[in-house]
Amino acid sequence: MTQRWRATVITAAVCASLICPPLFASAGDLYKWVDESGTLNFSDSIANVPQKYRDQVEKRELREERSRPAESASPARAEAGKPGNKEEEAPATTKYEIPYVNAYGGGRKGIVVQVTFNDRVTVPMLLDTGATGITISQEVAGQLGLLDKGETRLMQAIGGVGGTSMTVRKILRSVRMGEVREEFIPVNIMFNRLSPSFEGLFGMEFMGNYVFNINPARKVVELEDLPSRKSLPAGRDESWWRTNFQELNSYRDHWQEWVNFFDRKIVEDSMFPDKVEKYREYREISTAQYRAAEDLLNRLNRFAIDNYVPTHWRR
């Protein structure tokens, strides 16, 4: 493990104890306090807070995100469905075929395709339609320069069958599979490689933009354009834009709260050098995470402006 990546792992360990963004939290309350050794503690019940710390405990309410009600059909679509009215003929779509090979792991057979990132690094990826996003190994991230000095690294907790893991959130300029190419794709960098047969998981962040089918007889993945994407900003619907803006805003605000918290503790406990030193360390990490979230948010906003995304989709 390189020294630079080891520093990222240490940061991840601290971030894992601090990440509680609203988008991933359950409804309820979170109690936070610092014990006499300067260690940060958390609990979802006041009963777990030692009596001697209850006068300094900070309480934070966590709310579940509620999905908006489904939008009603547009007048044009409703009119087209009436008797005597003909719907417009669907525009022609483009179809693609991408060869794949099988990889075996954990007693199961997987589908592995060749994927090119940023038009420069091509690696085998496991097709995983159960994954919402795309994850890549730290080796691939290194080849892409995503872990170079000066690169921001937003730590993000992602869940799966094996539990929750810490990853680094990044945005790639492009992702290509065969002749199919998408731009501005969020990815997560994994700390541990999943298998020697592939370099990550290729999920619905890419595949969800197409109608797809696995043809085992010919060993190809068949993709077909979604006609509706052509009228959308950068081919993304309102839900994609809102979700990404809300998620990054949530991370930015979350880390800003921690920066403010440690600023207060540095002043309040100024008479205890050991505590102040630890608070400064945590504040530095929180500040770096805030800047990483802000960086990704600015990139997303520039991409939205370039593609004329409505302002109310960017909230």
Describe this structure in words.
The structure is a single chain. This protein has 315 residues and is α+β, with helices and mostly antiparallel strands. Among the domains are: 135 residues, Beta Barrel (Cathepsin D, subunit A, domain 1); 84 residues. The chain is 31% helix and 30% strand. The chain has 6 helices and 14 strands. The strands form 3 sheets. A 6-stranded mixed β-barrel has the order 6-7-12-8-11-10. A 3-stranded antiparallel sheet has the order 2-1-3, with no helix packed on it. Strand 13 and strand 14 form a beta hairpin. Helix 5 runs antiparallel to helix 6. The two termini are 39 Å apart. About 9% of the residues have low confidence.
Read across the widest sheet, the strand sequence of neighbours is 6-7-12-8-11-10
How far the N terminus sits from the C terminus, by CA atoms, comes to: 39 Å
**CATH arch. level architecture of the domain at 93-227:** Beta Barrel
Q: Give the biggest sheet.
A: 6 strands, mixed, barrel
Determine the mean pLDDT. 81
Radius of gyration: 23 Å
Count the E strands.
14
Low-pLDDT stretches? 20-28, 62-81
Please tally the helical runs, counting DSSP H or I stretches of 4 or more residues.
6
Tell me the series of helices and strands, N- to C-terminal: HEEEHEEEEEHEEEEHEEHH
Q: Which outline best applies?
A: elongated
| Strand residue content | 25-35%
CATH topology of the domain at 93-227: Cathepsin D, subunit A, domain 1
Question: Superfamily at the CATH H level of the domain at 93-227?
Answer: Acid Proteases
What is the SS-derived class?
alpha+beta
Q: Tell me the name of the CATH class of the domain at 93-227.
A: Mainly Beta
Overall helicity:
25-40%
